[in-house]
Design brief:
The chain is built from 13 helices and 26 strands. With 493 residues, the protein is an alpha+beta fold. It has four domains: 55 residues, no CATH class; 231 residues, Thrombin, subunit H (Beta Barrel), CATH 2.40.10; 87 residues, Roll (Pdz3 Domain), CATH 2.30.42; 95 residues, PDZ domain (Pdz3 Domain). It has a seven-stranded antiparallel beta sheet. Strands 20, 21, 22, 23, 24, 25 and 26 form a seven-stranded antiparallel beta sheet that branches. A six-stranded antiparallel barrel has the order 8-9-10-13-12-11. The longest helix has 34 residues. It starts with a helix and ends with a strand.
Length: 493
């Protein structure tokens, strides 16, 4: 064999070894990086390396350290004690998601269970799942710094699986509420909770779907159950229930509620209640101790291709109305069987779950604009929402309208009014009597948005703010025509 041939074979061998080594290195790198950094999926090659370039330009999106530092102190460990009960075979649908025996006491002595909760303001208000505290005789809250309190259950809502707790403490870490409507599929999120009693556990994943209906709450017999879950692949396990789902800005955008599992442990997907759905529920539980639920009075159905073909619909957009309840809000407004609801106020709806979530944000008596499709023509209809008993009034409305502050009567404002005035919160002055409000020139119809820079959401907030103030108080808000104004009032104590 010639010297040239030997050299050539050596070169080929070196190339082969080098190539194999590279393949092995790439393979090992993929194994390890996929376990450590979920973003490694982006290493699949394409012509322009578009995804890799985007990731390189946005390293902050993957900085989970800062997010964890914000979220962890505001997530609490909830421990419950339930007295001995006797029960037959389990009918708890949550066992399908959290495993056999989850929160189901056996015969015998007191039973203990645990979950998670999220502090939503510095005064000790905590949101969690209803199933975490359901039927508990004692609810204990352990803060991240190990301080322990007995919590009061202010109210629960089985229809959304939410509960509101209160501890007697102030100036504690809390999470700002984000906007779950702004979430995008593929966006990174962080789950914080106490799985298996492992406190302050942080996991990360992406939003894998929105508006997910898993029929969990309806299995419990909830007539008005609302499911519009955020689906993620962040690892969630028993004990995470009631914990925080946080975006990369450290804002609370969901309450972790369930997992899809045949074993009771994490198998790939978890589900969280969107915070935009929870906001109204939380406010009602705080103000009334229960949810004041508005009803449109329609049966609803997602539009499939089969349904569109059957009903002669040109598109799959909107939510189909197979039947309208006689005497209900929709019936009185002129909505008919066979209509398609396209939009509620300024929000388009393409799923039954989306329509349910939009309606859930309102109170009985609120007016909404409903964009419908009928005979292939769009039509806008104004509807006044009713309560379950057909009333336009919610409990405590009369009492609320009689509340007087500094000689003025105030009331909560509707979502329509907030949208029209381009504000997020406020209470409206409905009548001016002889008092400081009138003497300072504050006009009737003025909406108070802040008292001494503190946001005001309800009449209860306003009353509490004035009761706690002394001396000069700054009142900020907007007039009925949208002009921002501020007034200084001295309180006589």
């Amino acid at each position: 064999m010639s010297t040239y041939s030997l050299k050539f074979k050596k070169v080929l061998l070196l190339i082969a070894i080098g190539t194999l080594g590279g393949l092995i290195a790439i393979g090992l790198n993929k194994v390890f990086t996929e376990k450590e950094t979920p973003k490694s999926f982006s290493l699949h090659q394409n012509a322009k390396f578009t995804l890799a370039e985007k990731m390189a330009d946005a390293p902050i999106a993957f900085d989970f350290v800062s997010v964890s530092e914000i979220a962890t102190p505001a997530v609490v460990h909830i421990k419950t004690i339930t007295k001995s009960v006797s029960r037959g075979p389990s009918m708890n649908p949550f066992e399908d998601f959290f495993g056999p025996g989850f929160r189901m006491p056996e015969q015998g002595g007191p039973q203990q269970a645990s979950g998670s909760g999220v502090v939503i303001n510095s005064d000790g208000y905590i949101v969690t799942n209803n199933h975490v505290v359901d039927k508990a005789d004692k609810v204990e809250v352990v803060l991240n710094d190990k301080r322990t309190y007995v919590a009061e259950v202010l109210g629960v809502d089985p229809e959304t699986d939410l509960a509101l707790l209160k501890i007697e403490e102030s100036d504690i870490p809390f999470l700002n509420l984000g906007n779950s409507d702004d979430l995008n599929i593929g966006e990174w999120v962080v789950a914080v909770g106490n799985p298996f009693n492992l406190t302050s556990t942080v996991t990360a994943g992406i939003v894998s779907a929105k508006g997910r209906n898993i029929n969990l709450l309806r299995q419990r017999g909830g007539e008005y159950a609302i499911e519009n879950f955020i689906q993620t692949d962040a690892a969630v396990n028993p004990g995470n229930s009631g914990g925080a789902l946080v975006n990369t800005r450290g804002e609370l955008i969901g309450i972790n509620t369930a997992i899809a599992s045949q074993t009771g442990s994490y198998s790939g997907y978890s589900f969280a209640i969107p915070i935009n759905l929870a906001k109204k529920i939380i406010a009602d539980l705080r103000d009334y101790g229960e949810v004041k639920r508005a009803i449109l009075g329609v049966r609803i159905q997602d539009i499939t291709q089969e349904l569109a073909d059957e009903k002669g619909l040109d598109s799959l957009n909107g939510v189909y109305i197979p039947a309208v309840s006689k005497g209900g809000s929709a019936d009185k407004a002129g909505i008919k069987d066979g209509d398609v609801i396209l939009k509620i106020d300024d929000e388009y709806v393409n799923k039954s779950s989306e329509l349910q979530e939009q309606i859930s944000k309102y109170h009985p008596g609120d007016k909404i604009n409903v964009l419908i499709l009928r005979d292939k023509k769009q039509k806008e209809i104004e509807a006044t929402l009713l309560s379950k008993d057909g009333s336009k009034m919610i409990a405590n409305d009369i009492k609320r309208e009689e509340k007087k502050i500094l000689g003025a009567e105030i009331e909560n404002i509707s979502r329509d009014e907030r949208l029209a005035l381009k504000i997020r919160n406020g209470v409206k002055i409905t009548k001016l009597g002889n008092g400081q409000m009138k003497s300072k020139g504050i006009p009737q119809g003025f909406v108070i948005t802040h008292i001494d820079k503190t946001p005001v959401y309800t009449t209860t907030d306003a009353e509490k703010a004035f009761d706690q103030k002394k001396g000069a108080v700054l009142i900020e808000g907007v007039t009925s025509d949208g002009n921002k104004e501020a007034y200084a009032i001295r309180l006589d104590k």
